[in-house]
Amino acid sequence: MKFVKIMNVSFLTVVLFIALSSGACVDTTIVPNSDGDSDSDSDSDSDSDSDTDTDTDSDTDSDTDSDTDSDTDGVCGDGTQDSDEDCDDMGESATCDTDCTFAECGDGLTNVTALEECDDANTDHGDGCEDCYCVVAQSIVDVPFTSTTGWLATGCCNEANYRHGDGTTLVATFTDTLPTITALSALNIQIGIRHACTSGTSMTFQLNGVTFGTWGSADGPHCACSNLTVATASFYPDESGYNLGASNTISILHSTSTQCMEAITTVPATTAGTAFRVTADYTSDQCI
Length: 288
Ligand SMILES: [Ca+2]
Ligand SMILES: [Ca+2]
Ligand SMILES: [Ca+2]
Ligand SMILES: [Ca+2]
Hints:
Largest sheet: 6 strands, antiparallel
Shape: rod-shaped
Bound molecules: calcium ion
Strand content: 25-35%
Structural class: mainly beta
Number of helices: 1
């Protein structure tokens, strides 16, 4: 057999040599085949391979992870940690929340077993809930004389900054600035009082129309132009009448007198011109 193959190759080689050396015309023009491209295969793309590779990787791997486990789509609270749960302790635990997420401060879910008193979903301080502990925060609003109407600054007893006393009502308005996510727990309104002159005269203080305190001639400094005493009257009005985060009105109803009458002045230890200091204690509404 080897001898036959050798003979056949030698014979073809001789024939080809004779043809070339004899000047026979060899047509080298590429003739398009019927598929329209210029290669010599019979498919219709223009590359020259004929997809004869021996790729045998026809997805015959043994992947069997097609959800054949016993996952029941995560029922939180069944005691089994499913694939979509951080944990599942069949309720609240020191490390797991009732929604089957880890217990973390700041996730908005108060987990008392994890010693969280509150969780307002932020890391802010001064809003009543800090690091998941309830903290009474305090807001101080100084209400200046400039926001009032009807004040008199001169006249009898003008050593007081402002005075009145003719039976009219003086009004001061201010807007509370407390965070809206909080709840008011206590309210104190301080007023600097210089005079409550003449026996029987008095001032009646109202918050949004509700009386929260009075100050009369028997309560403190009296009408004497040389009397420089200033008293700080502190009142604790019912906080339910306070407009959290909104406008509030403090009114002073004066009694009538023909003499030097009532006067208020700057609240001691505050910025000059502060007619009222409103101190509000508040805490997270989650702590109420
Ligand atoms: Ca579960
Ligand atoms: Ca959580
Ligand atoms: Ca939490
Ligand atoms: Ca906070």
